[in-house]
Design goal:
single chain; 131 residues; alpha/beta; Rossmann fold; 50% helix
Length: 131
């Protein structure tokens, strides 16, 4: 796995809201936090004020950006279909994030327990939400 870690939108949102997220803070100190288009859109779409949204978009431009590729979308669809056959339903966007991590060989930081369904030890770091 490369040194970058894709950070899920739920982690960014909590951190931007003032919650301590030591795992994210460690990534920020090392300069290894990454975003992608899906995460960026999810975070920015929750900001109502246009000026604040623009400022946040500018702030996020400092992080490594992982481009979603056609191959990642195809892998996401295959993953989604495979999970459905096994009786597991996850959001397609989460299957895309998992596929992107696999394709780019990066880790993923999230609070969402359902990422454990991807069964890839060492890749998906599901951490508890702080109070």
């Amino acid at each position: 796995m490369t040194g970058a870690t894709l950070v899920d939108s739920c982690v960014w949102i909590d951190w931007l809201g003032g919650r301590a997220v030591p795992e994210l803070e460690a990534l920020l100190e090392r300069g290894t936090a990454a975003i992608c288009g899906t995460v960026l859109a999810e975070v920015l779409s929750g900001v109502r004020a246009e000026g604040t949204r623009r400022a946040l978009a500018q702030r996020f431009s400092a992080f490594a950006y992982l481009e979603e590729t056609r191959a990642a979308f195809t892998l996401a669809a295959d993953t989604y279909a495979g999970l459905r056959v096994a009786g597991v339903t996850l959001p397609l966007s989460d299957c895309l994030l998992a596929a992107l991590c696999r394709e780019r060989d990066v880790a993923f930081l999230t609070f969402d327990q359902h990422f454990l369904a991807f069964e890839e030890p060492g890749r998906f770091h599901v951490v508890p939400r702080s109070a």
